[in-house]
Specification:
By secondary structure, the chain is of the alpha+beta class. The chain has helices at 6-18, 50-53, 165-179, 199-202, and strands at residues 34-36, 55-62, 72-80, 86-93, 99-107, 115-118, 125-132, 137-146, 149-158, 187-188. It contains four helices and ten strands, in the order αβαββββββββαβα.
């Protein structure tokens, strides 16, 4: 096997940041999130209210990722601080079935601009909450650009671990029509049977 190109290596290194945002998974040797092209300029949801977004969300669908630390039963708690930033704790099981916790933070920027994910030891990464009704679904996207390569991620979050067809369809349509993400690249995350959630997470608050 030949040595990876400098471009690919740099792109993958940048990608590591995003993995600690919401929910991670074990993927394939050629990651589905990597490809030629440029990141979309679609803006995040206008007038996003992080106080209303904060709380617990379950990851039900996403673009698979070879570098993710969490593989199943993923739920994330977002806690807003006084500076309008979010402390992020993602819980779930890794590929070996072991309970795992991933910590990071999300910084707010100017109104209607992408958020920024911050995690120790890796570069910062952009994050867009493209659409959310705050109580049922949230569609998240992150895209990292390096020359003509892009590493693009997407997540469908819901307030309950049971996958919502309506929520998934809303986000899938947005991803396809506005972000250039094909529905076929989105994969379900195992939730429900075999997963253990604390009482505060089951409430979906």
């Amino acid at each position: 096997m030949s040595r990876p190109s400098t471009t690919m290596t740099a792109t993958v290194a940048l990608v590591l940041v995003t993995l600690q945002i919401v929910s991670p998974a074990l993927g394939q040797i050629i990651p589905e999130f990597l490809g030629f092209g440029y990141c979309p300029e679609t803006p995040p949801q206008a007038d996003l209210d992080l106080a209303k977004f904060s709380g617990t969300w379950f990851t039900v669908t996403r673009v698979p990722n070879v570098y993710d630390a969490l593989a199943s039963c993923i739920y994330t708690n977002y806690t807003l601080d006084a500076d309008n930033n979010l402390a992020v704790q993602a819980f779930g099981k890794n590929a070996a079935g072991e309970e795992t916790v991933v910590n990071s933070a999300i910084k707010s920027n100017k109104p209607n601009e992408p958020l920024t994910v911050v995690s120790t030891g890796v570069p910062e990464a952009p994050l867009k909450i493209v659409a959310t009704d705050y109580s049922t679904y949230a569609c998240l996207e992150s895209c990292l650009q390096y020359v003509a390569f892009k590493a693009q991620f997407a997540w469908v979050l819901t307030k309950k671990p049971a996958s919502s067809i309506e929520a998934t369809n809303i986000c899938t349509e947005i991803f396809k029509n506005k972000m250039g993400i094909a529905a076929s690249t989105m994969k379900k995350v195992t939730q429900g049977r075999g997963c253990e959630y604390p009482s505060w997470a089951r409430g979906g608050n």
